[in-house]
Write the structure tokens for this entry.
Amino acid sequence: MGAETPRAAAPLGLAVLGSTGSIGEQTLDVVRTHPDRLRVVALAAGRNVERIVAQAREFGPEVVALADAAAAETAARELAGQCEVRAGWEAIEELGSLASAEAHVIAITGIAGLRPMLRAIDGGRLVAFATKEPLVAAGELILEHARRSGARLAPIDSEISALWQCLGGERAGGNVTQLLLTGSGGPFRSWPEERIAAASVEDALAHPTWKMGAKITVDSASLMNKGLEVIEAMRFFGLAEDRVRVVIHPQSVIHSMVEFVDGSVLAQLGRPDMRLPIQYALLQPDRPANAFDHLDWTTLRELTFEEPDPLRFPCLRLAFEAAHAGGSAPTVLNAANEVANAAFLAGRIPFGGIAAAVEHAMGLMPARPIESLSSVEDVDRLARGLAEAYIAEVGTRGEGSVQ
Ligand SMILES: NC(=O)c1ccc[n+]([C@@H]2O[C@H](COP(=O)([O-])OP(=O)(O)OC[C@H]3O[C@@H](n4cnc5c(N)ncnc54)[C@H](OP(=O)(O)O)[C@@H]3O)[C@@H](O)[C@H]2O)c1
């Protein structure tokens, strides 16, 4: 009898939560690239019917879920006989326990991703998360759920993925001196303070190196995104905030670095293309070949580094303060920032008002311990209320940024 050829493993069944967004679409591109390794079993999003229907027709999932009931009704008509369409928040959360989903991609912006992420973690499988806000607002809770269920957490955020790759997929041990989180510095890197405070929505959305959803693009301009990543990295790798450092690196080629006690520094480099960390999160430790553009060493002339300026970028300072205070402080930071970011995008406050609103909420809510999902949600609700009231008051007075 001849030797049996080993059978190729079946493609991993993926539930993509936030499929219509920037990370969701790029995840589906990774699936297109590796149909032998990945298949889509569920898609979920907020309200973008046109995109999710097109995605469902291409990828043939079992289930599609939309948070918006009217959008779900339209999708159900369009996809009749092709797949099941579910409506509402609970439907998205329930995808966390869909039997055929062997891995979940969490790419729903903001704290809205928290409950679906926890549910997916409770399923004990692979949870690849791009959404950073849940880890910031409820880090201990998420890690505790993962410890209990045995779920494997895989970061998609390029900086956290870079650190994870440099650390060989482990948490940081005693031989790590510091994590060096790189950031492009955003569109306002070289702008003076007054010009940043008065920047327009269009200015803030003009990111120099990455193309992303609106919320994270504004966070990148204020450096709040870097601050959220500092907290995400502390939580995920188990280090105090004084061992996480931010380095401005305008070329976005080095995605982050780890310094060890012997003085060695490991860095992960690549083109600014989120499909790389998405592919790694889903298929690690394998690194299958793809047709994505690679770094071109013949045109790469320089890699430069700068210290971030906490005076011109107060959101970064506030994030370090929240990280240092611990407990509920990062939850407050995140909630107030979500409200202020949306208010800026809606034209209700100037750019400088984002940090002012966050500082206001943090000042009124001293850190306290966070023990449960309900305490995270209580703190989140209170902080949103304080930020919203502040924004409304500033708007009434016709001001933008109050110190
Ligand atoms: N984009 C990047 O390069 C990047 C890099 C690192 C980390 N991240 C993180 O990944 C997350 C997603 O970012 P993104 O740039 O992909 O955002 P995005 O383009 O704005 O997409 C957000 C996705 O979430 C869905 N969504 C938003 N609010 C929702 C709600 N209340 N209920 C249900 N679905 C909702 C949207 O659905 P509809 O549009 O259909 O309403 C969309 O599918 C963020 O947390 C971000 O910080 C992004």
In short: The first helix runs from residue 22 to 33. Residues 64 and 85 are 5 Å apart (CA to CA).
